[in-house]
Amino acid sequence: MTAPNIETIVSLAKRRxxxxxxxxxxxxxxxxxxxxxxxxxxxxxxxxxxxxxxVHERDDIEGLDSSIIQNRLVWKYSGHETTFSDPLVDCxxxxxxxxxxxxxxxxxxxxxxxxxxxxxxxDLTEAREFNLMFRTTVGAVSSEDDESALAYLRPxxxxxxxxNFANVLNTSRRKLPFGIAQIGKAxxxxxxxxxxxxxxxxxxxxxxxxxxxxxxxPRIQQEFIDGFLDWFDxxxxxxENLKLYEQTPEELAHYAERTVDILYRxxxxxxxxxxxxxxxxxxxxxxxxxxxxxxxxxEDAEGKRLNQDSTEDLSYFDEQTKQRFYPYVIEPxxxxxRTLLAVLMDAYSxxxxxxGETRVILKLKPELAPIKVAVLPLAKNKPEIVAMAKxxxxxxxxxMRTVYDDxxxxxxxxxxxxxxxxxxxxxxxxxxxxxxxxxVRDRDTWEQERIKVSELKEYLRKRLD
Length: 465
Ligand code: ATP
What we know:
alpha+beta, seven-stranded mixed sheet, binds adenosine-5'-triphosphate
């Protein structure tokens, strides 16, 4: 089962402490969200899963953590200063401001049953380009407009990787093909953010730039497309809710040879099946655009340097063929927040108990679950039971994230753990004091098993794997 819509997840997320509206006590800040105790654990587990899969298990990818604020020249030569913009239109009638290419995704504020531009009263201006980069100034400056101190919050993590290509190559002694991976915040002054954490102005990306020979790029790109479908499966995102989308020549970025987006069914409630899907990630063949753009060597037809400021040549020397060239780059770029939303939507399920009540179960993969085990005392007024339960929690804690909870009756405690996706509850009861055994309850089947305390850790570890 999948959540029927994003709203279901918004309310669960707030009720249980995954995600809260940011700056809420001051009236909020458009489309900003704070991650609560469970949300931050879930996001960390998603990032860890991605990092382990790419950086640790493959052994041909290095990690990196570059600065959010870089020299402004990075964004000049990457092309962001001139081309990282969205076409913006204003409506003279309703005073709304919209992205020209997303008019069909939003409703007119004055006539919510139609899209902007579709009502006879709508009066849209000509489109103008709006740069999405957040500007700031670095150091103590005399004026906010001081161009010499101008800097940007990075709108993507990728450029931090390209400008470190030579550093990583030289220190890791890698040979092609190899990749550099980075997870971090990115900032875009989006014209129309919205749909919960789907589109925000501050978000987190997991990007990897894989450097290879030009002739290998098409094959490697296809391998990452297939690989990411497998990774999404491993974190519990259903294949039936994913779709591949091949960008058309008109949609392709100027530097890209081929880009395939993996779309997720973020909007299952929409009638038109096509509109149910939106981008979860993109996998682009960026050719040699980025390394060339940041290099001091390349020249135009008249012999003038294309990059006047770089001090480095980011080309690669192949020892075998004795040739120097700029590697091609395959870039799988995925959003942490969109992945988290998709994971929550596909983990969402409902089950009816014997009293006919509907219960929510979050069937998260154990690897992603914020809490792996909850230890619950059947009677919180019995000191021996409480002591045994607290002791068990202490024993399990170093091996798996375990919590102790006695804040309600057992039915309520089970329901709470089901709703936040805890795979196992361990209940200590009166009998436990006699037989040194506890009841282990499975989140998904609600089946209970009696397990000896001496075997508990091993039993849970196996089941969690
Ligand atoms: P979109 O077309 O939805 O604006 P994009 O193609 O500009 O996205 P990329 O630049 O390819 O996005 O960034 C890679 C990934 O980062 C996206 O697939 C998405 O998961 C995530 N992402 C991009 N912009 C946002 C945002 N404003 N809020 C949340 N996640 C985002």
